[in-house]
Amino acid sequence: MDRNQVTQKIVTAKVSKKMTWAQIAERIGQSKEWTTAAMLGQMTLTAKQAATAQELFELTDEETLWLQIVPYKGSLPTPVPTDPLIYRWYEIVSVYGSTIKELIHEEFGDGIMSAIDFKMDIQRQADPNGDRVNVMLSGKFLPYKTY
Amino acid sequence: MDRNQVTQKIVTAKVSKKMTWAQIAERIGQSKEWTTAAMLGQMTLTAKQAATAQELFELTDEETLWLQIVPYKGSLPTPVPTDPLIYRWYEIVSVYGSTIKELIHEEFGDGIMSAIDFKMDIQRQADPNGDRVNVMLSGKFLPYKTY
Amino acid sequence: MDRNQVTQKIVTAKVSKKMTWAQIAERIGQSKEWTTAAMLGQMTLTAKQAATAQELFELTDEETLWLQIVPYKGSLPTPVPTDPLIYRWYEIVSVYGSTIKELIHEEFGDGIMSAIDFKMDIQRQADPNGDRVNVMLSGKFLPYKTY
Amino acid sequence: MDRNQVTQKIVTAKVSKKMTWAQIAERIGQSKEWTTAAMLGQMTLTAKQAATAQELFELTDEETLWLQIVPYKGSLPTPVPTDPLIYRWYEIVSVYGSTIKELIHEEFGDGIMSAIDFKMDIQRQADPNGDRVNVMLSGKFLPYKTY
Amino acid sequence: MDRNQVTQKIVTAKVSKKMTWAQIAERIGQSKEWTTAAMLGQMTLTAKQAATAQELFELTDEETLWLQIVPYKGSLPTPVPTDPLIYRWYEIVSVYGSTIKELIHEEFGDGIMSAIDFKMDIQRQADPNGDRVNVMLSGKFLPYKTY
Amino acid sequence: MDRNQVTQKIVTAKVSKKMTWAQIAERIGQSKEWTTAAMLGQMTLTAKQAATAQELFELTDEETLWLQIVPYKGSLPTPVPTDPLIYRWYEIVSVYGSTIKELIHEEFGDGIMSAIDFKMDIQRQADPNGDRVNVMLSGKFLPYKTY
Amino acid sequence: MDRNQVTQKIVTAKVSKKMTWAQIAERIGQSKEWTTAAMLGQMTLTAKQAATAQELFELTDEETLWLQIVPYKGSLPTPVPTDPLIYRWYEIVSVYGSTIKELIHEEFGDGIMSAIDFKMDIQRQADPNGDRVNVMLSGKFLPYKTY
Amino acid sequence: MDRNQVTQKIVTAKVSKKMTWAQIAERIGQSKEWTTAAMLGQMTLTAKQAATAQELFELTDEETLWLQIVPYKGSLPTPVPTDPLIYRWYEIVSVYGSTIKELIHEEFGDGIMSAIDFKMDIQRQADPNGDRVNVMLSGKFLPYKTY
Amino acid sequence: MDRNQVTQKIVTAKVSKKMTWAQIAERIGQSKEWTTAAMLGQMTLTAKQAATAQELFELTDEETLWLQIVPYKGSLPTPVPTDPLIYRWYEIVSVYGSTIKELIHEEFGDGIMSAIDFKMDIQRQADPNGDRVNVMLSGKFLPYKTY
Amino acid sequence: MDRNQVTQKIVTAKVSKKMTWAQIAERIGQSKEWTTAAMLGQMTLTAKQAATAQELFELTDEETLWLQIVPYKGSLPTPVPTDPLIYRWYEIVSVYGSTIKELIHEEFGDGIMSAIDFKMDIQRQADPNGDRVNVMLSGKFLPYKTY
Q: Which residues does UniProt mark as catalytic (chains A, B, C, D, E, F, G, H, I, J) (predicted)?
C-alpha cells in the first residue's frame, strides 16, 4: 500500500458520495485549496484531520495512518502537462516566467517567492463578458544572502 | 535579424541606462507586467508603443518594426526551468496543478482559465515575518461546449 | 476506479455490440465528433447523456457517475504520436505550424484560435482520384489585450 | 549557406517592405497557405516562382537556387511547441487525436489522411460572439493494403 | 481488453504450438511480412482472416472481433529502440536518412515514399562470406503539389 | 574547422554548380548511394576520391584532408526526424520493426542484419498507378555465438 | 506470458536456491558471462541448454520454450542508467567514447568493433592497493566498404 | 575561450600535420589511450606535457594554460550516441549491463568498478576470420561500506 | 518477487508499527542514514542485519534473502525529481555544481569526490531564526592518474 | 551581451592571471564558496564587490553592471550532468534522495531544507587512507503550513 492508493480511494469515494471539495474542506476545517491538495496526496494531515477524513471516506486504520505520513509530492503524470486547464498554467510559466522573474527581482532583489510558505485563494468573479477565475498567490520572499 | 536580437538589445540598453521596468512601463503607458513581457519578446506593440521603445532604447527603424510583429512566444530555455525563482512557479503547477483543476471545475464546470484573456498583478506586501510577494492572476473562464 | 477504466469498458462494449460512433452519437444526441471524444474520456457528460451511455454500454452506477466528472484530458500515450494516422496530424502541426501562425496573425492580429470554444466536422468527399477526408475546424479567435 | 538563412532573409525583407503574405501569394500565383509555407522554408519553388521571390525580396542568385532545392522540413524548434497559437493545434491533436482516428477509420477503414496530397484553407468567419478562425483541411485517404 | 492483450495471447500460442510465421501466413493467405505485422497488432484483419486466426490460436469471439478493429500502431517500447537488430534499422535511418532523402528528391522531386501504399519482402541470400539478409521495400511516390 | 563545415561547403557548391548526385558519383567512381552518403559527411574517402571531390567542389587542401578522416556519423538533427520523407522511414522501423525482427530470427536464428557490411540501391519503378520508389537493402547476417 | 516473466522467475529461484552464476554456467556449459546474459533474458538458449535451465529453476514447459525464442534485448530501465555500477560503464562510454573511436579508426580504418561477434571475460586481479576488476572485451572489426 | 576551442584547434592541427595519436602519445610520454583522451579535452595535462603539446600543435600561451585546467568532461553530443562505433559500446552497456553488475557483485560484493582509478588498453588481434579489437579495461573495485 | 516489493512491505510495516528510522537503525546497529538507505532498497544487508529486519517487519524467508542481494540502485522515479524537498538538492547540484567542481579541483587537482567511499550525517541545529538542517557529506578524493 | 559572456571572460582572465578562487574570494571579501558561485554567474554582486571584480579581471563598465543584475541561474548544460565529479553529486541525490527526505521529515515534519537561505563549506580532511572531501551543507528548514 502507498499514498497513491489512498488518494485513489478518496477520489472514488468523493464521486460515489457526491461531496464537493468545499464541503470536505469545511469538515476538515481548513481552506478548500489546502484541503484539496491534501486529499490529492500532496499534503500531510494531523491525526485529527486524518480521523475526519477516515470518517468521510470510510478509510481503514492503515489508510488513515498513511494520510499522516509526508508524501512524495508532484501531482502530474508528465513534465509538460497534457490537460488543457493545467497546461494553461504551464503556459503562463513559459510565457510570463522571465517577466515574473524580472519584476520580483526589481522589487525585492535576488531571491525567490516561496512555494512552501505559500498560500493560494481561488475565487469566481462575475463579469458580464464572461465570469473570470481570480487566483491570489502569496509567497514569502526569501533573499539569497552572501556568506 | 529576428525578435530575439531586438530583445537582447533592449535588455542590454536597459542595463546600460539603469532604467527600471516600472519606469519603462510608465513611458509605454501600460502596466509593468504587460510592458516587461512585451520588452522580453512575448507581446506585440502598437506603432505608438514601438516608437516610444525606439526612443528609449535607441533602436533602428527595422528593429522598431520587429516589435510590431507577433513573436514566437515562450521565454524559457528548457521545459523544466533551472532558475530557482521560475522553478518555484513550475513547482506550484506540479504540486497544486490537480488541486487548481478540481476547484475550478467544481465552481465552473468543464473548461479552462484563459491564459490569453488574462492579466497579472505583482505586489509587495509588507509583513513582519518577512515581506510577501502577492500575485493576482485573472483569466476569463472558457467553457467547453457540446455540439 | 478512474475514468480510463470506464473508457476501456466502453470501447470493449462497443466492439462486442458492433455499434458505430455515428449510432452512439445519435443516441447521445450530439455530433459524432463530440460524442466520440466524450466516450474516449476527453469530455464531461450531463446526467442525461450519461444515463444514455449507461444503458448503451451496461455501465454500473459508479461508472456512470465518472462520466459526469471532468476528466484529465490528453488521449495519446507519447508526446510524438506513433500511430501513422495521428502522426500525420502532428506532421501538419510541425510542417505548417509556422504558416498557420503567420496567416492567423495577419488576419486577426496577436492572439490564438481557441481549442476550447472549438468544434470539428469530419466528412468524406468522393473524388475520382481517391476519396478525400475533409475536416473543418472552427475556433473562436481570442485576442491578447494590453492592460 | 543553407535554406534557413534564405528563410531568415525573406522574413526580414517582408518586415522591412511591409508586405503581407496575401500580397506575396498573389505575386507568386498560388494560395496564401502554400506560399507562406514555401517562403518559411517548407516547400520547393519552381524556377519561375523562385524568380518572382528573387525580385520581391532582393535575393542573390545563389539564394534563389536554394528555393528550388527540396528543404529539410519541420518548422518548430521543439517537439511540443511553446508558442500559444501553435500549441492549441498540438492540443487538438492530443485531445482529439484518438477521436479523429476512430471516425476516419469508421468511415474509410484502415489507412491515413495524407499530409502530402493535402491542402489547407484558412478563413475568417464574422460572428457577433467574436469572430472565428475556420480552417478546412483536405487530405486524400490512403488505405493500407494486404499483400 | 485491448489489442495488446490479443497480441500477447497470439505470441504465446505461437510459442506453445511451435508454429512459424511462414506457416501462419500460408494459413491466413497473405505474405509472411504482412501476416506477421498483423499478428503483432499493426494491421487490421478481414472477418475471414480473423476466423482463421481464431482457429489457429484458439481465440474467443471477442478477441477475434478485436483483430478486425484498426489498432493504435507502433510496435516499439522506446523512441530509440534498444534491441540490436531493430537498432540497426534505426541506425540506417540515422546514417543514411539524408542520403535517401537527397536521392529520392533528385529522381522524383519534392514528395515522399509512402509507408502506407507500401510493401516489404525479406529474403535470405546465400553467400560464401556469410549469408545476407536482403530486404526489398517498395512504396508509391507521393508528390507535394502546389495549390 | 570540422567535417560539418566541409559538408556544408559541398552542398552549397553542388547547388551553385547544378550538379546531380548521380553525376558526382560517376566522377567519384562509386554508386550514387555510397557517394551521396560520403559527400554528406557519413563515409571516409580515399585520397584519390578526395582529390576528385576537391576538384569538383573547389575545396582547400585542408578541407580535402578532412574527407579522408573517419567522421562522427549520424545525419539527423533529432532522434525522431521531422522531415516527412525521412519520418516515413522511421515509421517503417516503428510499425514493422517487430515484424522484421521476427522474420529474420525465424530464418537465421539470433543475430542481426549488419548496417556496416551493408549496401543499398534506390530505383524508380514506373507504375500506371503512380511510380514507386524501390529500395533494396542488403546486409550480412551476423549471428550471436555462445562462448 | 513473456520472456521478462521467465527472467523474473529465474532470478527469484536463484535467490531461493542460493546458486551462483558461476555454478549455473557450469551446469549450462558456457562461460559465466554468456550464461548470465542468457538467464537475464538477453540471449537465446538451445533446446539442451533450456532443458538444463528447466531443471535448475523448476520451469514449466512453456517457460522453457520461451528461453529458446530470440528475446527483445536491452536490460536497463532508462537510457542513462541510475545504478552506480552500471553508470560507471556509461561514464566510460561518455568520457572515453571519442578516444576509443579515434584509436580504433587509427588502427583499423573506418568501421566498427562488433557487439555481436563479441565476447567478454571478467576477472578479479588481486592488488595490494585494492583488488581490481579486469574486463577483456573482444569484438571482430567490421570495415565499412565502398560499393 | 574555453577548452572546447583548444580541442578543436588540436584536432585540426593533427589533421593538417598528418600526425597519429600514437606518435603524439610518444611525444607526450604516456599511453596512446590516456593521451588521446587528454587531447580530446577529457584529461588535465602537467606543465611539461602541455609544453610538448604547445610545440606539437603551435598553441598560444593561453591555450597551453587551458590544457592544465581540469575540464568539464563528457565527449559525446547526445545521451544515446549516434555514431555507429560508439553506439556499439553503448549497446554493450545496454545489453550486458545487468550481467556485468551481477558478476562483479558475485565476485566482490556491493560496490563499483572505478572509472577514475581506471586504465584501458586497446590492441589489434590478428585473426584469419577477420582481425579483432581487444580492449582491456581495468578499474579498482570500490566497496560500499556500512557506517 | 523483487527488491521493490520488499521495500514496499517494509515501508508499510513501518507505518503500521509506528516505528521511526532512528529506532530501526538502533536495532540494525548502524547509523540512521545508512539504515534508512538500506531499508529503502539502496544497500545490501548482512545475514545478521537481515535477520533483525525480518523480525522487525515480519518478513518471509525469501524476502529476507532479497535484502542480502545487491539491489539495482536509484530511488527516484524521474531524472529531475518532482518532490520539493528532493528537488532542492537537485537545485543545489544545478546551481552550485560548477562551483563545487572548481573548488575541489583547486584543492585536490583532477579527480572526484567518491559517492561510494562516502558517508552522510544529518543533524538539526536549533536557531532562533528558524532551525536549520545541517548535512555533512564526506567522500574520499579519488585522483585521475596518467598511465 | 549577457551574463554568460561576462562569466566566460572572468574564467579566461582567471586562467591567464593564474589566480585561485581562494585569492579572488579574499579580495571580494566573502567565502570561497559564495565567491566562486558568483563569479560563475549564479549570484548577484553589490556595487562594491563588482568594482573589485572589475579591477581583478579588467572588465568594462557595462560588464561590471551585468554582475549586479540578478542572473538566470543554473550552471549545467544537461539535466543529468556528464562531468564525473558533478555526476557523483547527482548520484547522491538519486541514491540517497529518498533517505534524506525520510530523515528530514522524521526530525522536522513536512517541509523542505532551503536552497536559498543556504550555505556551504568545502574542506579537505587529511586521511592516511586517502584524503577526504568534507562538505557541510546548511539550510534553514521551511515548514509547510495549513491555511
A: 88, 91, 114
**Which pLDDT does position G2 carry in this prediction?**
86
**Which grid cell is C17?**
455490440
How far, CA to CA in Å, does I145 sit from each of G93, H35, H41, H139? 18, 12, 15, 12
Parse chain F into domains and list their residue ranges: 3-66, 84-143
Average pLDDT of chain I, as a whole number? 96
Active site residue J16: no
Q: Are strands F132-143 and F111-125 parallel, antiparallel or unpaired?
A: antiparallel
Residue B21 near residue A102, CB atoms below 8 Å: yes
Q: What is the pLDDT of residues D57-115, one digit of tens each?
A: 999 999 999 999 999 999 899 999 999 999 999 999 999 999 999 999 999 999 999 99
CA–CA gap between residue E30 and residue E27 (Å, rounded): 8
3-state SS class at C132: strand
Measured in degrees and rounded to the nearest 5, phi and psi for residue G123 equal: -130, 150
User: C-alpha A33: how far from its chain's center?
Assistant: 6
State how far the alpha carbon of E26 is from the alpha carbons of C40, E19, E53, F96, in Å. Answer: 37, 11, 11, 19
Does residue C105 contact residue B70 with C-beta atoms inside 8 Å?
yes
Q: Name which of B125, I91, I85 is nearest J108 in CA terms.
A: I85
Phi, psi of B11, rounded to the nearest 5 degrees:
-65, -40
pLDDT digits (tens, 9 = 90+) for F101-144: 999 999 999 999 999 999 999 999 999 999 999 999 999 999 99
Radius of gyration, alpha carbons of chain A: 18
- Averaged pLDDT for residues J32-50: 97
| b/e code F17-26 from CB counts within 10 Å (16+ = b) | eeeebebbbe
Angle formed at CA G77 by CA G74 and CA G81, multiple of 5 degrees: 95
C14 vs chain E: nearest CA distance in angstroms?
11
For residue E126, what are the CA distances in angstroms to B144, C107, E129, F103, H98?
Answer: 63, 64, 9, 16, 36
| Domain J110-147 in this protein, CATH class | alpha beta
Taking the CA atoms of D114, D115, D119 and D120 in sequence, report the sign of the dihedral they define: positive
Does residue B55 have an active-site annotation? no
Residues F18, F16: Cα–Cα separation, whole Å = 6
Dist. CA D87–CA F50, nearest whole Å: 47
DSSP secondary structure string for all residues of G47-58: HHHHHHHHHHHT
Tell me: pLDDT of A42 over 90. Answer: yes
Residues D69 and D44: their CA atoms lie apart, in Å, by: 6
Residue of J nearest to H42 (CA): J83
CB count in 10 Å sphere of residue H58? 12
Which residue bears the cell 579498482? H140
Contact criterion met (CB below 8 Å) for H31 and I132: no
Chain A positions touching B141 (Cβ under 8 A) are 124, 130-133
Nearest CB among D77, D82, D84 relative to B115 is that of: D84
CA F89 from centre of chain? 13
| Residue closest to D98 by CA, chosen among C76, H34, A86 | C76
SS3 H36: helix
Q: How many Cβ pairs closer than 8 A exist between chain E and H?
A: 12
The rounded distance, in Å, linking the Cα atoms of F144 and G43 is 8
Q: Do chains A and D touch (3 or more CB pairs under 8 A)?
A: yes
Q: Where are the beta strands (DSSP E) in chain D?
A: 111-125, 132-143
Q: Are F9 and F57 in contact (CB under 8 A)?
A: yes
CB nearest to C76's CB, from D97, D134, D142: D97
Are J135 and I140 a contacting pair at CB < 8 A?
Answer: no
CA distance G55 to G61: 11
3-state secondary structure of I141: strand
Q: For E84-143, which CATH superfamily applies?
A: Cyanate lyase, C-terminal domain (3.30.1160.10)
CATH architecture of E3-66: Orthogonal Bundle (1.10)
State how far residue H31 is from chain F, nearest Cα, in angstroms: 22
